[in-house]
Design goal:
The structure holds two protein chains of two kinds.
Chain A lengths: L2 E12 L6 E12 L3 E5 L6 H8 L7 E6 L2 E2 L5 H11 E4 L11 H10 L5 H14 L15 H13 L5 E5 L7 H17 L4 E5 L2 H4 L4 E6 L2 E7 L5 H14 L9
Parallel strand pairs in A: 3-8, 3-9, 6-7, 7-8
Antiparallel strand pairs in A: 1-2, 1-4, 4-5, 9-10
Helix pairs in contact in A: 3-4, 3-5, 5-6
Chain B lengths: L1 H11 L1 H22 L1 H7 L4 H39 L1 H9 L4 H41 L13 H28 L2 H6 L12 H22 L13 H28 L1 H4 L4 H50 L4 E6 L7 H6 L4 H7 L4 H4 E16 H5 L3 H7 L8 E6 H11 L10 E6 L2 H12 L4 E3 L2 E5 L5 E2 L13 E4 L9 E10 L4 H13 L11 E5 H44 L1 H9 L4 H37 L9 H31 L1
Helix pairs in contact in B: 1-6, 2-4, 2-6, 2-7, 2-21, 2-24, 4-7, 4-21, 6-7, 9-10, 10-12, 12-21, 12-23, 12-24, 21-24, 23-24
The chains are: A alpha/beta, B alpha/beta.
Chain lengths: 255, 678
C-alpha cells in the first residue's frame, strides 16, 4: 500500500530568537492508505500543532509534509484552500457545525463549495447519512442535537468529499463515554468499509485504542509508537496504558 | 491609568467604532452646517419680504434642530449601547480581576469624552468647510447675488452644536454608567456563548400574512394615487399611512420566512457555493430584526419622499410665478361699505385710483397700464347654489370643502381686459350664458361636474346656462400659486351696481430698472402711514413681494427637507451598518470554519458581499416601491404649487442616497471583511 501522508523532519518554532519555544522538534512518520492512526500526548506535547501543520492551518518552520505526491508546505493561497477542501476532511473537538444550518445543509456545504450540483449532493448526502445512522437528525439544527449526533454529522461532512485523509482533533473530547463509543465505531466503519485514512489526535487512551497504530509524542518529539497488530481492542488498550504509564503519568486523565 | 486603558480600548476596537465615529462626525457636521445657515443668509442681498421668510426659516431651523437632536441622540445612544454590548466580555474580565463597577464606569466616561471631543473637532472642522459651499447654495436658492463671498464661521451655530452634542454625550455617558451598574458578572462572561434558536416560520402562515399585507399595501397605494380624491379629510390620510406602516412590518416579517423557503425549494440555487450559508445567515438575522428593518424601511421611504418633493418644490414654486404674477401691483378695495368710520364709507364709493390720488400718490407719475375692474357678489349665491344638483354628491365625496362661501362675479368685458394683460384667453358670451374661470385643479374638477349637468345660475332675475362643460383656465387675483377656486364670468347686462363688492386695480410701475421699481413699491408700502390712506383698507399684492415670498418659502422648505432627509438617511444607514458589523464579529467563528473547510477567500468575500447587499438592499427596495406611490401623492398634494417635472429632483435624491447610503454600505462591507479576516 502506498503512503498517503509523509511527515519529514518537520520543526515548528514559536516566538523570537531570544525566547524560542519548540512546539515540534524534528518529527517524521508516514501513514499508509487505509490506516487509522492515533497521536497521543499530554497537553502541550505538540500534538495539536502537528495536526494544524498537517491540516495546513499552520505552517511548519522547516521540513516537509507530503499528502500523496503534493508537498503541502509549498502550497499557497487558493491552492491551499483547494487542497483543503478536496483532499482533507476535518473533525473538531467542538464539532464546528454552522449553527444556522441544518445537519443536512452542513453536510451538503462541504460539497457545494466544490461546486457539485444539487442532485449529486442529494444522492451523496443520503448515502452517507444512512451509513452513519444519522437519518433521524438530518433536518435538525445543531442546537437540537446531542453532542454525539453533532460529531457524527461532522464526520459525515468530513467524509462526504472522499478526502485522501481525515483529520480528527480530539473528536471525543466533548462527548460522554456512550457517544464516544458510537462515534469511534463510526470511525471504524469509515476506516474498514470506506477505506478512509484517519489521523486522530487524542489524549484519551480509550479513544486511541480504536486506532490501528498509536504514535506517542512528548515535548515535540516522537516518544514511541505501537501497533495494534492482530490483538483485540482490549489488549491494545492495555498496551497503550503501559506506554502512558511509561510517559510518566503525563496523560493523567487516560481513563 | 484608566485614561490610558480607555484610549487603548478605542484604538483596539477601532474597527467596531469606525461606523460610530463616521456617524458622529456626519451628525455634528450636518448639524453645524444647517444651523450656520442663519449667518449665511445675513450676507446675501434680498428684498424685505424674502428677509421675513428667512427669519421664519431660521426660526423653523431652530425648532427642527431640536427634533433632529432627539433623533441623533437616540441614534448615538443606540450605537453606543451596541458597542458596549460587544465589549461585555472585556468588562467581565475587569470585574473578575477585581476592578469595581465605578472604575469601569470611569473608563466608559473617559471613552465617551475622548470620542466626543474627537468627533466634535473633526465634525465641526468639516462642517465649517462644507458650510462655505452652502453659501453658494443659499444665494442660489434665494435668487440673490453673492456679491461679497467671504469665509464665514458661525459662532452661534458652533456653540449650539457644542451644547446639543454635549448634552447628547452626557446622556450617553449616563446610559453607559447605568448599564454597567445593572449588569451581572455571569451575564458579562457568558454573553458570547448564548446561541440564538433558529426558528422556521410556518410557510402557510407566512404566505397568508404576505398576501394580506400585499392587499393592504395595494389598497394604501390605491388610496394615495387613483383614489386620492377620497382623502380630503385630514383624518382620512391616516388610513393609508397606518395601512402602509402595518403592512410594511408584515411584509418584512413574512418575506423573511418566505424567501428562504422559496430559495430552498430551488435546490440548484440553494446548494450552490455558499448560498445556503448566506441565506441562513440573513434569515436568522431578519427573524430577530423585523422591527428595525421595518423602521428603517419606513425611514428611507420618508427620506426619499421628503428629499424629492423638497428639491422640486422650490423649482415649481418659482416656475409658476412667471405666469402667475404678470403685473407689478394689484390693489383690492371693498366697495359700498355701510359700516365703519365715515371716511371709510365715503371712500368705498370711489375708485382706487381716486383713493390713491386723494392720498397724494400720483398714479400717472408712478403707474402705467392702469386697469380697474369691479367684482360683484351677492349673499344669495354661494358655491352650494352654483353646484346645483351636483352639490349633494360633492358634499358626500368631499366633505371637508366649504360650500357656503359667496361666489364672485365679473362682467365679461372686464374679464377680457384682465385676460388680455394676463395673457389668458378672452371669452365671448351670449346673453344667457356664463363661464367659470378657475385654476385650482381640484376645485375646477368639482365645478366641471356641475357644468356638465348644465347647472343654471339665477342672478338678479336673469337665468344663465353654462357655455362650456368645463372651467376656463384663468384667475383674477395675483398669488404665488394656482389657488383660484372659481370666478363666474357673466354678460355685462347680468350685473348692476347694487351688488358691487370689490374694485381691483392692476398696474405696472412706471420704471425700467429694478431699483426704481423697488422705490415705487416702497412708496406704495409707505402709503400705510399716509394721513388719508391709513384709514382705508387697501390690499396690495405686488410682483416683488409675491416673488420674494415664494422664492423664500420654496428655499425654506427645501432646506428643511434636505436637513431632515439627510438626518433620517444617516440614522437608518447607521443602524443597518452597526447591526451588520456586529453580525460580522459574531460570525467570525463561522467564517473561520468555512475557511477550515477550504472555502476560497473569494467565495467568502462574495458571500459577505451578498449578505451585506441583501441586508442593505431589502429595506431600500421596499422603500423605493413605497416611494413611487408616495411621490405621486406628494406631487398631488403639492399640485397647488404647480406640477413641475420631478425627474431632476428624483435624480438628486438618488444621488444623495447613493453617496450616503452607498457610503455606509461600502464602509460596512470593507470593515466586515476585515473583521472576518482575523
Amino acid at each position: 500500500m502506498k503512503d498517503i501522508l509523509t511527515v519529514k523532519e518537520i520543526e515548528k518554532y514559536y516566538g523570537t530568537k531570544s525566547s524560542l519555544t519548540k512546539a515540534i522538534d524534528d518529527i517524521s512518520f508516514s501513514v499508509k492508505e487505509g490506516e487509522f492512526i492515533a497521536i497521543m500526548g499530554a497537553s502541550g506535547s505538540g500534538k495539536t500543532t502537528l495536526l494544524n501543520c498537517i491540516s495546513t492551518i499552520d505552517k511548519v518552520t522547516s521540513g516537509h509534509i507530503y499528502v500523496g505526491e503534493t508537498d503541502i508546505t509549498k502550497l499557497k493561497g487558493n491552492d491551499l484552500n483547494k487542497f483543503r477542501r478536496e483532499e482533507l476532511g476535518f473533525i473538531f473537538q467542538d464539532f464546528n457545525l454552522l449553527d444556522t444550518l441544518t445537519a443536512y445543509e452542513n453536510i451538503a456545504l462541504a460539497l457545494s463549495i466544490q461546486n457539485v450540483n444539487a442532485s449529486e449532493i442529494e444522492r451523496r448526502v443520503k448515502k452517507i447519512v444512512s451509513d452513519l445512522d444519522i437519518n433521524s437528525v438530518i433536518n435538525k439544527y445543531p442546537y437540537q442535537m446531542s453532542g454525539g449526533q453533532k460529531q457524527r454529522v461532522a464526520s459525515a461532512r468530513a467524509i462526504i468529499t472522499n478526502p485522501k485523509l481525515i483529520l480528527a482533533d480530539e473528536p471525543t473530547g466533548a462527548l460522554d463515554s456512550k457517544s464516544s463509543k458510537k462515534l469511534l465505531e463510526s470511525f471504524n466503519y469509515l476506516n474498514k468499509e470506506k477505506n478512509a485514512t484517519i489521523l486522530m489526535v487524542t489524549h484519551d487512551a480509550f479513544t486511541a485504542s480504536y486506532a490501528s497504530r498509536v504514535i506517542f509524542i512528548k515535548d515535540g518529539k516522537v516518544f514511541s509508537e505501537i501497533n495494534k497488530g492482530s490483538g483485540t481492542r482490549k489488549e491494545f488498550f492495555d498496551k497503550i496504558i503501559d506506554v502512558v504509564t511509561l510517559l510518566g503519568g503525563d496523560v493523567n486523565d487516560a481513563l | 491609568m484608566l485614561c490610558k486603558l480607555s484610549l487603548k480600548n478605542i484604538r483596539k476596537s477601532f474597527k467596531d467604532y469606525a461606523i460610530y465615529f463616521f456617524t458622529l462626525i456626519l451628525g455634528v457636521c450636518i448639524f453645524y452646517v444647517f444651523n450656520a445657515l442663519e449667518s449665511q443668509t445675513v450676507m446675501i442681498n434680498v428684498s424685505l419680504s424674502t428677509q421675513k421668510i428667512i427669519e421664519l426659516m431660521n426660526y423653523m431651523m431652530n425648532a427642527v434642530s431640536v427634533f433632529v437632536s432627539f433623533i441623533l441622540g437616540f441614534l448615538i445612544i443606540y450605537a453606543s449601547r451596541f458597542l458596549i454590548k460587544r465589549r461585555n466580555k472585556e468588562f467581565g474580565i475587569y470585574l473578575t480581576l477585581g476592578m469595581g463597577k465605578r472604575k469601569i464606569s470611569k473608563i466608559l466616561l473617559f471613552e465617551t469624552i475622548f470620542i466626543g471631543v474627537i468627533s466634535l473637532v473633526v465634525g465641526l472642522t468639516l462642517g465649517v468647510v462644507i458650510s462655505q459651499f452652502m453659501s453658494l447654495l443659499v444665494a442660489n436658492m434665494f435668487e440673490a447675488d453673492l456679491t461679497n463671498f467671504k469665509f464665514i464661521f458661525s459662532e452661534s451655530a458652533c456653540i449650539k452644536t457644542l451644547i446639543y452634542f454635549g448634552i447628547i454625550y452626557l446622556v450617553v455617558a449616563i446610559f453607559n454608567v447605568v448599564n454597567v451598574s445593572k449588569c451581572k458578572l455571569i451575564d458579562l462572561i457568558q454573553s458570547s456563548k448564548r446561541q440564538e434558536e433558529v426558528k422556521m416560520k410556518n410557510p402557510i402562515l407566512c404566505t397568508l400574512v404576505f398576501v394580506v399585507a400585499s392587499i393592504m399595501l395595494g389598497y394604501a397605494y390605491y388610496l394615495v394615487t387613483a383614489g386620492a380624491s377620497i382623502l380630503d379629510e385630514m383624518v382620512m390620510i391616516l388610513i393609508p399611512i397606518s395601512l402602509g406602516t402595518v403592512s410594511t412590518f408584515l411584509i418584512v416579517w413574512s418575506l423573511s420566512g418566505l424567501i428562504l423557503r422559496i430559495v430552498m425549494s430551488v435546490k440548484n440555487l440553494y446548494y450552490k457555493g455558499l448560498n445556503s450559508f448566506v441565506l441562513r445567515q440573513i434569515s436568522s438575522k431578519i427573524n430577530t430584526t423585523v422591527m428595525s428593518m421595518g423602521v428603517i424601511c419606513l425611514m428611507l421611504f420618508v427620506t426619499i419622499c421628503v428629499l424629492s418633493s423638497a428639491l422640486s418644490l422650490k423649482n415649481s414654486m418659482t416656475q409658476n410665478l412667471l405666469t402667475l404674477v404678470p403685473v407689478d401691483i394689484q390693489l383690492v378695495k371693498t366697495l359700498d361699505r355701510n359700516e365703519g368710520s365715515q371716511i371709510l364709507i365715503d371712500d368705498s364709493k370711489i375708485s382706487i385710483v381716486d383713493t390713491l390720488e386723494k392720498g397724494g400718490f400720483s398714479t400717472s407719475d408712478y403707474l402705467k397700464d392702469i386697469l380697474e375692474v369691479t367684482v360683484y357678489m351677492t349673499n344669495d349665491i354661494i358655491v352650494e347654489t352654483t353646484l346645483g344638483s351636483y352639490y349633494n354628491e360633492a358634499k358626500v365625496k368631499y366633505p371637508m370643502l366649504t360650500y357656503s362661501s359667496v361666489e364672485s362675479f365679473i362682467k365679461v368685458s372686464d374679464y377680457n381686459k384682465v385676460a388680455k394683460i394676463y395673457g389668458n384667453d378672452e371669452i365671448s358670451l351670449s346673453d344667457d350664458e356664463y363661464v367659470i374661470v378657475a385654476d385650482f385643479e381640484n376645485w375646477a374638477n368639482i365645478r366641471n361636474e356641475a357644468l356638465k349637468l348644465g347647472t343654471t345660475i339665477n342672478i338678479l332675475g336673469g337665468e344663465y346656462k353654462p357655455k362650456y362643460q368645463e372651467c376656463v383656465n384663468g384667475y383674477l387675483y395675483m398669488s404665488g400659486s394656482h389657488i383660484n377656486t372659481g370666478i363666474i364670468v357673466v354678460p355685462d347686462s347680468a350685473l348692476d351696481d347694487s351688488i358691487r363688492e370689490e374694485s381691483i386695480l392692476f398696474a405696472n410701475y412706471n420704471a425700467d430698472s429694478d431699483e426704481d421699481k423697488e422705490r415705487i413699491e416702497n412708496m406704495i408700502l409707505d402709503l400705510d402711514k399716509n394721513d388719508y390712506i391709513s384709514n382705508i383698507e387697501l390690499d396690495a399684492s405686488s410682483k416683488i413681494s409675491i416673488y420674494g415670498a415664494s422664492v423664500g418659502l420654496g428655499a425654506c422648505v427645501t432646506f428643511i427637507g434636505i436637513y431632515l432627509g439627510i438626518i433620517f438617511l444617516i440614522s437608518s444607514a447607521a443602524i443597518l451598518a452597526l447591526k451588520e458589523l456586529s453580525e460580522s464579529s459574531d460570525n467570525k467563528e463561522r467564517y473561520k470554519m468555512l475557511r477550515k473547510l477550504g472555502t476560497d477567500e473569494k467565495m467568502i468575500n462574495r458571500a459577505l458581499f451578498k449578505q451585506t447587499a441583501i441586508f442593505f438592499g431589502f429595506p431600500l427596495l421596499l422603500a423605493i416601491i413605497h416611494s413611487v406611490f408616495g411621490i405621486i401623492f406628494c406631487d398631488y398634494i403639492l399640485s397647488v404649487f404647480g406640477n413641475e417635472k420631478l425627474l431632476a429632483s428624483i435624480v438628486m435624491t438618488a444621488l444623495i442616497l447613493l453617496v450616503i447610503y452607498g457610503g455606509y454600505f461600502v464602509i460596512t462591507y470593507t470593515v466586515s471583511k476585515n473583521i472576518i479576516k482575523d
